[in-house]
Amino acid sequence: MRIHVVRHGESVNNAGVSTVPDPPLTAAGLGQAQRLAACWRDEAFDGLVCSPLWRALQTAEPLLGAARVGRAVAWPALVEWNRSSPLDGHPPAEIAARFPGVRCDPPLQETGWPEYPGTETAADVVRRADGVLRRLVGEFPPGARVVVVAHQGFDGALLCAALGADLDRVRFGQGNGRVHTLDHQDGRYTLRSVNGDASWVEGAARLADDEGAGLVAARPAAPGDIDVYLMAGEAAAEAAARADWGDRGLGAVVVAGMADAGWRAGMALARATGARLEVWPGAAEAGGEARASADALWERVRRSRPEHGAIAVLAPAPAAGRVLAAAVGDGGVTRPAVVLDEGSVSHVRCQEGRVTIRQANAVLRDGPARGAVDGPTG
Prior knowledge:
Shape: elongated
Number of strands: 17
Strand order of the largest sheet: 6-5-3-7-1-9-10-15
CATH architecture of the largest domain: 3-Layer(aba) Sandwich
Order of helices and strands: EHEEHEEHEHEHEEEEHEHEHEHEEE
Radius of gyration: 21 Å
Structural class: alpha/beta
Number of helices: 9
């Protein structure tokens, strides 16, 4: 099963226009929903499951008209991580009238939605997300393709539930209208992308323009933060060297376990950005040694203090995936499975006591990347 986890488009609350209990999308948010539908036009999905909050329903609506969707349903368990007051969504009758193609299961009460109280802890929302995953696996066949439209906080909890990560320590960045992708097979989840553009979907036609695509730019938010760019193979470093990476503040380019072509690509990126070039041992390619090597490589990266607070790590794609898994697992007994495509870039921010996966398996385009991650949650 492949699960695409979508954050709704920009809401009026996200934009700071107003603060209302169940906000609608802005004009920009409606445009993000339309672009999602354009990327996935004529794609076949076995199901679309969305939150019954208005902004998620508005995001799902264009997709239902563009793609071939087996069934569409709103699951109240997909509402946003609620850390304050009880939810107060639109009345079910109003939802049914405005979105007749989407059935709410289980049905909501007419007022107040008292079955979804406030003050959920991180553990609470991960448990709720785990229930959603179990229901997805139980109701859809093993080879299904399913779209989940929900909210940034809940989507991060869903990834934590799937990967066995600690939501108090690991966060997943997700911009409005962007997509996380998970695969489920034989009882195990594999992370395929974080905060991706919808055109990444395997088999989908890419749009001619790159609006919203590529790797988002980000500088350290505070002294002591480290931005880590994991580059899967020399093609990623070559593309970064051709692109405008001067604003990322790279202090070091690390080449780990690469052949001559990788060293040359690393040197080109170091020259283009003014960073120093370093060669570290790479992660082994088989067995328990591979995990131990990836753990050691991630620990060295995490403890590094690069000038300007950013470091690029160039490694073969399988090793880069294991290093990202080490960042998510942080020394735990289990390790999530992570598959990164050759030539992709993943972005991890290390802060004191927390790791944020800002993007994974991103397509790096030549020229400045577009898009943004940060912004209000919800």
